[in-house]
User: What shape does this take?
Amino acid sequence: MFEDFILILDSTVRLSTPLLLACLAGLYSERSGVVDIGLEGKMLGAAFGAGAVAYITANAWLGLLAGIGVSVALGLLHGFASISNRGNQIVSGVAINFLAAGLTALLGQTWFRQGGRTPALPEGGRFTDVTWPMAEQLRDVPVIGPIYAELLSGHNILVYAAFLAVPLTWWVLFRTRFGLRLRAVGENPAAVDTAGISVTWLRYRAVIACGILCGFAGAYLSIAQGAGFGVNMTAGKGFIALAALIFAKWRPASAMLTCLLFGFLDAVAIRMQGQELPGVGEIPVQFFQALPYILTVILLAGFIGKAIPPKAAGIPYLKERS
Amino acid sequence: MSETPAIELRKINKRFGPVHANKDIDLVVKKGSIHGIIGENGAGKSTLMSILYGFYHADDGDILIDGKKETIPDSKAAIAMGIGMVHQHFMLVDNFSVLENVVLGAEDSQLLAGGLFRARSELKRLEEEYELRVDPDTLIEDLPVGLQQRVEILKALYRSAEILILDEPTGVLTPAEADHLFKILEVLRNEGKTVLLITHKLREIMAITDTVSVMRRGEMVATVETKDTSMEQLAELMVGRSVLLRVDKKPAEPKAPVMEVSNLTVTDSRGVQVVKDVSFSVRAGEIVGIAGVSGNGQSELLETLSGIRRATTGTLKIHGETIDLSTSTLDAADMRGKSMGHVPEDRHRMGLINSFTEYENSILGYHRDPAYSKGLLMDLATIKKNAVAEIEKYDIRPPNPMLKTANFSGGNQQKIVLAREIERDPEVLLVGQPTRGVDIGAIEFIHRRLVELRDAEKGILLVSVELDEIRALSDRVLVMFDGRIVGERGANAEEGDLGLLMAGVDNSPSVQGGMQ
Assistant: This one.
């Protein structure tokens, strides 16, 4: 029973990682006042970029860089449309989602001819699991053993990166000049502008930070958790990350907890597949798969208190002409 | 002149498309003085100050700061030259602490801790030097506006501003807060700072400035020593002709009540009671003024009476019937049907649709009136004919009913709203801030029109945060504070007395003695 539980938690961590990376990505963007519904598209683009480059070069690190490159490029496109040209941020984000969905499938098919997938990764093209020292020896120690060997040890490096990004993001947001300005520009860009700081440049930096983290998230899917890119492999994770962001009220630590919760539900769903519950019978797996969404709707509808977004989120900044 | 002036402007020009906002502006501001710049809305004051603060760029002309010719490409450059600005709408981040707001943009280094530490001790020093007390750890949203403004001043001083520009600083303040601000400005001047005060209120200019410059339609028409001038002279310079600062009217001859409000309580969306057990009446042939600092329930009162907002309790007697406001489902159109006109406080948000034409706006809210339709279609010919008649009667310029209202000046927009409501001949007219952002010429016209309506034996409920306006127009004044009516005064109420009531202080014998 305890072992089962540890296994579920272990897959919770794996399943939460892409959500967490994307959620933190959205946090940078939205805290600066740029609503980013294109997390999904950026992740997908990054997953494809990472999968393709890791296959060709047989180097996971180059794959990661490529993923980040694609995602940042899409982020800059979003910035160009919504920051420089003051376009509607939702429309621009949706466009990026369509663009990424179509382009990855098309390029995948053209280049690799495997129905849009990238071929299975060669040796070195994938981030492999890192085993912590003494993990095998400690495995049989009661309680601590499984926690150390299963839960803490044995994940790939991107998982650790995702969870380290949480305190790092908090620190950037609340302890650095960049963070102060980032939060300010999402609340009242005019205050930032009159303080002699460029609103445009600040928001671009936020969008780039968002792109980098989405790049990690996408690369995680195709070259760490998976062994290649599959058509539409993000399957709505970008949108769940966005819901988690609202849920977490745009705070890093809450974002982690929310993503862990969603990951946990996902892990339970997989675990319950085909299993009978005493007295209830077999619960359709779709029920568990739908749970995160149901939970999001219910909780957002009023159980988490009012989620107040950054005041200037979604509004392009225009110098007032008085 | 022996001393180098703090600011010297030479032949500054600025155009926005066809609008020539600043024409050949020359200005000399002495170091260590309080220099007022006065003019009507749209005279170009704010544009000029925005050029000084690097928000806009002058098309041509020279700016000299401390005798040195400078170009000011952005606000950062202006700050570096020692220019600070307190904007009309505060440039503060509401959910930041005072300290964080002060530090924003002047953080010293990549890490915050050092900058915050220095700011904390520096704030303490400024607090002692200028008597600018405010708790550095309070969030801005928890501070009253007077203190928020203080934070803006502190922000400028923290950046070692030598020149401080204040844009309409008293618009949001109570008279007491304004007096306090003036004291601070005097301290700043005595410490050698230069203060530029932009306002359209003559009283402030007379009370606080050393020198005053008058702008009119983009031009600098005069610069005079304040002690050598008078309100009347300044007003004349602003408008270009002499104006009546007082409204000519004979004493009211009120008849029977046309509107009676009893025990009205209104709760807003946050669950806070904003209007608390308010009762009063308005009689035919009188103007009842509601004075108060904005945000004390007057807006909600007006919105409830006009059918836009729901009440928790209260009844309204109007047009021969009694309405229970707590259960009533009457909306704004129904209330208009009860012969109640409404000139809303914010003409842009509620009074007009600025992307519509003048004639469309001239029937807004009355568009269901059968007089304006032919079967299923609107009777555009009649509507336009009416619009043209109103344009003529209210001297609305430009006299073109096909123009979008966005292209009219504030005064003319207000006249469009006023004409629409008054010409439907209501028994009761609710008027909110009738002259906000309106030039002096139009103010005069609007005031005269309201008095005429009163003399035609209609009842008028006037809500205004401009004390001068309340005093000039009202036959009775009710003062609202914190959602309650805290006092009633007659037509000749004293300014100081009303000011105290507006701040929630009442030591008049009428309350203590129970007299009414």
